[in-house]
Amino acid sequence: MSRPPQFEEHRYLGDKRTQVVHDLDDPDLDPAVIEELIAAETFVCFAPDTLAEARNRGYRPAPTRRERAAGLADG
């Protein structure tokens, strides 16, 4: 998926409601998830824009499509 215009310079976008961070460069990322997140205005981006910084703030990576299909996704 291409990055939303307001996040062209960011790779990771967090959901404040679930404490999950989405990788905007993930080819399996459903664009509807990001569209809903932006519409709800419950997103956060990180500085520095790294997964390590997202984890430092208590966010966990969004489950992959494979993990969701296998039923391994958290809550």
Commentary on this structure:
About 30% of the residues lie in helices and about 15% in strands. It has about 80 residues and is of the alpha+beta class. It has one domain (about 5-70). The longest helix has 10 residues, at about 30-40. The protein is globular.
Topology:
Blueprint lengths: L11 E4 L4 E4 L7 H10 L2 E3 L5 H6 L3 E2 L3 H5 L6
Short description:
By secondary structure, the protein is α+β, with helices and mostly antiparallel strands. The protein has three helices and four strands. The chain has one domain.
Q: Which key features would you list for this structure?
A:
75 residues, alpha+beta, four-stranded mixed β-sheet, 3 helices
How many E strands?
A: 4
If you compute it from the alpha carbons, what radius of gyration comes out, rounded to the nearest whole angstrom?
12 Å
Beta fraction of the residues?
15-25%
**Mean pLDDT across all amino acids:** 89
Biggest beta-sheet profile: 4 strands, mixed
The helix-and-strand class reads alpha+beta
Helical segment count: 3
**pLDDT below 50 for ≥5 consecutive residues: which ranges?**
none
Order of helices and strands: EEHEHEH
Describe the global form.
globular
Percent helix range: 25-40%
Distance between the termini: 24 Å
Strand order of the largest sheet: 3-1-2-4
Query: How many domains make up the 3D coordinates?
Result: 1
